């Protein structure tokens, strides 16, 4: 009788865990996903720091694998308000599993960037599908955001929706990486 009950419990556990499974799981050894090579990718944004105002600030800094450089919206003259967006052309379709976003680096984590953002995917750069809305923590560490791998996308759009302070008009980020289905 014990064996029957244990077998029944094991079967129920298997049934429960097989329902509502994530589209992909990113293990520490990255056994189900791979980091996409972004060397040929391009990035554009609604706003960038003008030439000569800082040593960086362009959307392309999000793709250079260097957390010391960063994209920064223009706050020199126009200082546009939220929302702010960056659009990444990955040059081919990917089934995304996780998007990793790294804040602009500072001695103490920068507290005036974005607080909430959305991710969207697109096959043509004009029609977008929501991949979710997320909260962004105040940290220098990379932050991982899981998305559905149900569809493949060529374009990834991150839209900063609100600032950490509620009054800051600009935002910035150091890097964006994606992990894709192997």
From TrEMBL:
Q: Which residues form a coiled coil?
A: none
Q: Which N-terminal residues, if any, form the signal peptide?
A: 1-22
* Alphabetized InterPro entries for the sequence: FA58C, Galactose-bd-like_sf
Q: Where would I find the F5/8 type C domain in this sequence?
A: 19-181
Instruction: Tell me the keywords, alphabetical order.
Output: Signal
* Name this polypeptide is given: Discoidin domain-containing protein
Q: What is the lineage of its organism?
A: Bacteria, Pseudomonadati, Bacteroidota, Sphingobacteriia, Sphingobacteriales
């Amino acid at each position: 009788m014990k064996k029957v009950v244990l077998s029944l419990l094991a079967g129920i556990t298997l049934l429960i865990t097989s329902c509502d499974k994530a589209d992909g799981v990113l293990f520490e050894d990255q056994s189900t996903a791979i980091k996409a090579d972004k060397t040929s990718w391009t990035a554009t944004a609604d706003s960038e720091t003008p030439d000569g105002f800082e040593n960086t600030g362009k959307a392309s800094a999000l793709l250079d694998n260097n957390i010391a450089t960063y994209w920064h919206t223009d706050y020199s003259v126009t200082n546009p308000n939220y929302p702010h967006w960056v659009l990444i052309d990955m040059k081919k379709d990917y089934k995304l599993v996780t998007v990793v976003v790294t804040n602009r680096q500072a001695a103490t984590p920068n507290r005036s960037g974005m607080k909430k953002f959305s991710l969207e995917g697109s096959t043509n750069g004009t029609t977008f599908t929501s991949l979710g809305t997320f909260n962004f923590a105040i940290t220098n560490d990379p932050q991982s955001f899981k998305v559905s791998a149900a569809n493949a996308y060529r374009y990834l759009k991150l839209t900063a929706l609100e600032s950490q302070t509620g009054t800051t008009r600009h935002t910035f980020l150091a890097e964006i990486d994606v992990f894709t289905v192997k």
